[in-house]
């Protein structure tokens, strides 16, 4: 069985796209093909093979494999002892960093977990969540977080470098989330650093390294991007838009807008209406 789920508009940081289970027939295969989300398979019984990037893995009960977005993969059930697997499709801003903490990446796609049947139980819980009506999406997201926390807890120990890289990705997402939530306010880099709990200079260096731009430039460009989106609303004046994206001084807003977009807000709006 398989259930497909609509993309979450509420839980953009992490959400379930589908889940399912299948007792495969002898030699059943899928691919070569790509996905546009993460897909984690866990083998409940039997055996099979998984191929990615020119490498072939022979897998059995208690193991699993991760399919990353836009990566060509192929997998096939054993001809004599075909596998039964359950799977979890998911995506979101935190998906990659959480998987890295669990030791699962495009270069290391194999899962090892034979402690108990907890992973299969999460599939069961997801299926049982059909009984939820108003809160099912939140329930599924919570179960996905719990599943990934299990994999992180009992996954391979990360090297110091991998741990730093994973934490850096999380901090960058927190900066982006803070900016996207509070861009209309009078925020500073110091405010962001205090919110995240890191030294201002360290956070700025970390963000620059990960994003190849400064936090200040990211904030400016995000504000201007949102301003451009508001230009189509004829009821808003340039001053209204300026204040709505965090600039109390319309003249300063116009100066920054022109620097980023190459045209004044008035000219940009005029040209946009011609399209």
TrEMBL record:
It comes from the Bacteria. Coiled coil: none annotated. InterPro entries: AraC-bd (IPR003313), Homeodomain-like_sf (IPR009057), HTH-like (IPR037923), HTH_AraC (IPR018060), HTH_AraC-typ_CS (IPR018062), Tscrpt_reg_AraC-type_HTH (IPR020449). Residues 173-271 form the HTH araC/xylS-type domain. Pfam families: AraC_binding, HTH_18. The keyword Transcription regulation applies. Keywords: DNA-binding, Transcription, Transcription regulation. GO terms for molecular function: DNA-binding transcription factor activity; sequence-specific DNA binding. The keyword ATP-binding does not apply. PANTHER family: ARAC-FAMILY TRANSCRIPTIONAL REGULATOR, MMSAB OPERON REGULATORY PROTEIN. This is AraC-like DNA-binding protein. It comes from Paenibacillus cellulosilyticus. The lineage of its organism: Bacteria, Bacillati, Bacillota, Bacilli, Bacillales.
């Amino acid at each position: 069985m398989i259930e497909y789920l609509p993309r979450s508009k509420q839980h953009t940081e992490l959400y379930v796209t589908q889940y399912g289970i299948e007792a495969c027939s002898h030699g059943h295969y899928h691919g070569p093909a790509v996905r546009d989300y993460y897909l984690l398979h866990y083998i409940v019984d039997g055996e099979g093979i998984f191929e990615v990037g020119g490498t072939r893995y022979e897998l059995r009960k208690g193991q699993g494999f991760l399919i990353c977005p836009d990566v060509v993969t192929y997998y096939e059930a054993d001809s004599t002892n075909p596998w039964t697997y359950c799977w979890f499709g998911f995506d979101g801003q935190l998906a990659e960093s959480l998987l890295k903490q669990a030791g699962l990446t495009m270069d290391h796609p194999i899962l090892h977990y034979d402690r108990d049947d907890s992973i299969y139980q999460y599939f069961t819980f997801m299926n049982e969540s059909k009984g939820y009506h108003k809160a099912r999406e939140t329930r599924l997201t919570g179960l996905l977080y719990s599943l990934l926390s299990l994999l992180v807890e009992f996954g391979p120990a990360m090297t110091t470098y991998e741990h730093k890289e994973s934490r850096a990705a999380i901090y960058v997402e927190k900066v982006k989330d803070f900016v996207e939530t509070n861009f209309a306010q009078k925020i500073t880099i110091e405010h962001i650093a205090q919110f995240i709990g890191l030294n201002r200079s360290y956070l700025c260096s970390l963000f620059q390294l990960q994003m190849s731009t400064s936090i200040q430039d990211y904030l400016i460009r995000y504000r201007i991007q949102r301003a451009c989106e508001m230009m189509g609303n004829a009821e808003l004046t340039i001053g209204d838009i300026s204040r709505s994206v965090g600039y109390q001084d319309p003249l300063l807003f116009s100066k920054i807008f022109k620097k980023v977009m190459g045209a004044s807000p008035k000219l940009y709006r005029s040209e946009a209406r011609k399209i």
